[in-house]
Amino acid sequence: MKRKRKVFLVLLIAFVILITGGCGQKVKSNQITQLDRLETTEKKDTSAKKLEKINQIPNDGIITAAQMDTISGEGGEFQFSGKDQEKGITYVWTYEGKRIKNPVDQNLKVEFSDAKTEEVKKAGGNAPYGLAITLQKMNLAAPAALGLTLNEKWNADNAVLCKYVDGEARKICDVVVGSVSGIGDKQLTTLAFNVLEVGDTYYILAGKGEEDNQENKGAEEKTKNNGNNDQQSNDEDSSSAGNNQNDSEQAAETQSGQLSGENQNDQVSSYTCTISIECSTILNNWDDLNEAKADFVPSDGWILYSSEVEYSPGETVYDVLYRVCKDTSIQMSAKYTPAYGSYYVEGINQLYEFDCGELSGWMYSVNSWFPNYGCSQYEVSDGDMIEWRYTCDLGRDVGDQYYE
User: Fold this and answer.
1) Residue pLDDT, tens place only, 374-386
2) Are 192 and 173 in contact (CB under 8 A)?
3) How many CB atoms lie within 10 A of CB 133?
4) Can you give the pTM of this predicted structure?
5) Is 299 exposed, middle or buried (0-12, 13-18, 19+ CB in 10 A)?
6) Number of H helices and number of E strands within the chain?
């Protein structure tokens, strides 16, 4: 009887250890697949209220993954608006629902200041206008556009978003400048750009373009030489009306999120995108490379220079890569993972994951954004810029901020 109890006790202890993970299989934490980011084992929170087309950003700035999940895969654009009370700047984030495939928390709180703006304006060619803007650290759930409405009028027609690095204003992207009427017909400036990176303080620099200044000077001379006051008045009224119409259209585009790329020309007869494949990071980590793979690394790191290709609506990044590699005789290996419902690209041009260190492998980006889901789930849009890059440091060396 005692023996039976002892055997039962041993079995009970073994069972407890098993269910608590004591004998669980260890999962590789350094697997360089973007598919591993999908948390399919977690149950979805179905209690979240469905987001509207236009939403107010909460005080803490957090739109939860559960909330984002309510618009995942939905058609149309979804906006999130907030306001900086101190500076009176309003801002609107715009997401395309169909681009959200793997919802994650979004911190949409934007902070504005004048910190170092004078230094950055000077570094940016003595730009007359500048604004420091801090975007919170997060993994973007989808490509996003950000529109700002300043509580003042900037006499500017062009602007750029940049980072201040080592005393230099390094451009990230262009910013669209417009204007709207505020209280009492006060003119306000609008700024809009596609968000390519977050998690730092950035600077918007603005001013007048040289070409525009020359046109203004020519218009002034014409006005001076015009002796007909009535005609001059009519010209000014017409010009003002035209400018107001353009400004209104530009402002409307900003507020509706046109920069996010949702709306395309339905009349397009052929659809094109660009694709490139490169592994230049290996050149900086040559000592870590598997010696047997050295001959497959081009001297400049480019396996396929940026090339424009046609695609059919509904095709994915994987479809384009597969076809391009087949047409150009570039070796490619991929495997389908049922758990994630997507293909994972293991190797291109005989260069595979872990061939240049335990954190190495292939990653893709579209329009400078690294999607947090598989390449066969990302449908291509007209004009997309697809980049396949080999990383030796889990994405950090190619611009992916997910693991930072």
Assistant:
1) 999 999 999 999 9
2) no
3) 21
4) 0.73
5) exposed
6) 6, 19
